[in-house]
Design a protein that fits this description.
Layout: H1 17-22, E1 25-35, E2 44-49, E3 56-61, H2 69-72, E4 76-80, E5 86-88, E6 91-93, E7 96-97, E8 99-101, E9 107-109
Antiparallel strand pairs: 1-2, 1-4, 2-3, 4-7, 5-6, 8-9
Amino acid sequence: MHLDHDPQAPPGETISFDDFLRVDIRIGTIVAAEVYEGARKPSFKLRIDFGAGVGERRSVGQVAALYTPEELIGRQVAAVVNFPPRQIGKALSEALTLGFADEAGRVVLFSPDKPVPNGSRLF
């Protein structure tokens, strides 16, 4: 499956509401961020706290073009927490941190505009 980052692309394949509900998207707070040395694209290794129900997860985010580790710590982000862990180079990613491409193709993180409890689920 190829994801098209072109804002002019048509919508994806139609899915059912049940399909949507199977994707568990939660809010978590970034508690650690470090440069991922050796990554193909500028990336950070993140640790994200999703609260008591999900716990803390590791994620690799290609967000180094617009963010520094210091400004990421304490920031709430949305992530898929029910994908199987994925090896990304030498790092293991346990959550898919979500974002959108800006006009230059850099990743802008998807975050709530007001604080919400860690572990809150998108609906």
